[in-house]
Amino acid sequence: MRPNAFTNPGRFFRGNLHTHSNRSDGKLDDHEVCRRYKAQGYDFIALTDHFVGHFDYPISDTRGFRDQDFTTIIGAELHSGGMANGELWHILAVGLPFDFAPSNTPTFQPIADQETGPEIARRAVAAGAFVAVAHPEWSGLSEADALSIEAAHAVEIYNHGCHVECDRGRGFHTADHLAKAGRRLNFIATDDAHFAYGNKDAFGGWVMVKAEENSPEALLAALKAGAMYSSTGPDLVDISVIGDQVDVRSSAVVGMIVQGQGVGTASAFGDSMTTASIDCERLSDSPWIRVTVFDAAGRAAWSNPIWRD
Hints:
By secondary structure, the protein is an alpha/beta fold. It has helices at 30-39, 117-126, 136-139, 143-148, 160-166, 172-180, 216-225, and strands at 11-16, 44-47, 50-51, 71-78, 91-94, 130-133, 154-159, 186-190, 206-211, 228-231, 236-242, 245-260, 265-279, 288-294, 300-302, 306-307. The chain has two domains: 11-231, TIM Barrel; 236-307, Immunoglobulin-like, CATH 2.60.40. 18% of the residues lie in helices and 32% in strands. The chain has a 16-stranded mixed β-sheet that branches. It is globular, with a radius of gyration of 19 Å.
């Protein structure tokens, strides 16, 4: 068994799915944001400004910045309703139509008579978007709130901006609870860049999407199908699961870890490893596994959950 990120036709395209411009609370205009990502070697970007009334509910039109080497996907960060901790929901929606109807969200404070987070997520999926639960650690998302999202494709398991700003950038605790409940959500790593600290909150987390072409349509289809992995540095080359053995190929790393439901893990460590065969018998009862690799600088790459059935 091999994940479709390594079996689908095409090649990997590197992209950032969570970015802000000065159409909401970012520091740079949309053209400069796209220019910087292209200059850094990215293949695509989704500009996802905050969809609130204070900013006139922006869905930024970045189509004019596309060329033969770089593309954009239309999106926004949606907000509506309050979570259990009283904070506003944050739902990442990539692939939104321009006529997506605004929620009743005038500011970043929850108010009465709003859609809930699960409701606006469901509406975004119905409109054709790839939807992810944004920065659950930063949001203080409870397990009950996470389980209430029934229409989503992924969890943001690494948010570089939240990591830089306040060391609350991970989402694996939420993602693993959802997997334990049988929710088959994939993973994304993002920047959530605002360029508020120079470039420090940019170019730190990305997705590698396997598609036959670097077009918004092909990328969006691959994202929805889970044909991607997430990274802050290393490359995943291949993963194969044969019974209780997991074979991993990657760029040079010092550690490869296989995790599953519960506390059991299996791992391999070494210097400049590019391959490992890992005995995962202690994970044989887990309905899913996922792979993490990390290099000597502490940068990591993560597979999506691999469901054994």
